[in-house]
Amino acid sequence: MWDYSDKVMDHFMNPRNVGEIDAPDGVGEVGSLACGDALKLTFKLDENGRIVDARFKTFGCASAIATSSVLTELIKGMTIDEAAKVTNKDIADYLGGLPEQKMHCSVMGREALEAAIENYRSGGTKKHELEGKVVCTCFGVTENEIERVITENNLTTVEEVTNYCKAGGGCGGCKGEIEKIIQRVQGEKTKELPAKAPARGRKLTNIQKIQLIQQTVNEQIRPALRAHGGNIELIDVDGNKVIVAFRGMCAQCRLTEFTMKDVVEARLREFVSDELYVEEDKESAAEPHNHRE
């Protein structure tokens, strides 16, 4: 059973703005019934160029219905330029969060909004088309879309990409290419970041500590593990205990204890706090990581 927020359940059980606007100013259709999710969004502008009405029709799960409902509520009263800035994170945050495996529903909402805006700006002549090379043929997800969800949501694993846009959730044949895209995008982001001095010696709040731990994992630890076919996931932070799970080749390596102490723990102590120590969550490492709709 998915752990849905009260807002998700409310918008699922009592969806707002269901239907289709007659003579709409913008129409956006994304997804496919064959792939399990589809959404049609229509909106109408008033004389001042603001969205006065927005309606949706969707085929999908509770999250798909809830995100579509919230999307229509969010954009009412906005100008086209304001609506164009709405992200999938805005949709998910408005709902009080979504299960990771359902984040693709918020991405579908953002895509439908972009398609409707594109349709409006073209005078109703242009329909949404895939841009870029198709990487996941099972769900028709392009390289451009994968790059975007990685960048906007700071994704670092193939599983996360699957959760956000379904790429890799079918036959799995594209997972290797998705991994390469993650490495390239995250590598480019790391190069753009200024070098940061170690945080040791300064008092950190719990939130600051967790954020700095995640940042150190992304920038200092994960690239080193990926160079050898491995990966790492931050599971939890409990006081000074950092719980991680190894992925890829690291999960099968007999030297994980060495990696945990001499790589992971050493880097965290260098860049965050010398009081930190690392433990491996072996149960999480043993769990299957293939979430499908």
Give the tally of structural domains: 3
CATH architecture name of the largest domain: Alpha-Beta Complex
| CATH class category label of the largest domain | Alpha Beta
- N-C termini distance: 13 Å
Rg is 21 Å
CATH topology of the largest domain: Sufe protein. Chain: A
Number of helices: 12
Number of strands: 8
Task: Please characterize this protein's 3D structure.
- By secondary structure, the protein is an alpha+beta fold.
- The chain folds into 3 domains: 6-121, Sufe protein. Chain: A; 134-192, Orthogonal Bundle (Arc Repressor Mutant, subunit A), CATH 1.10.10; 206-286, Fe-S cluster assembly (FSCA) (GMP Synthetase, Chain A, domain 3, 2-Layer Sandwich), CATH 3.30.300.
- It is 46% helix and 17% strand.
- The chain has helices at 6-13, 62-75, 80-83, 88-94, 103-121, 143-153, 158-165, 175-192, 206-226, 249-252, 256-271, 282-286, and strands at 26-32, 37-45, 51-59, 134-136, 141-142, 230-238, 241-248, 277-280.
- The strands form 3 sheets. Strands 1-2-3 form a 3-stranded antiparallel sheet. A 3-stranded mixed sheet has the order 6-7-8.
- Helix 1 packs across helix 2 and helix 8 (175-192) crosses helix 9 (206-226).
- The longest helix is centred in the last third of the chain and has 21 residues, at 206-226.
- The chain is elongated, with a radius of gyration of 21 Å.
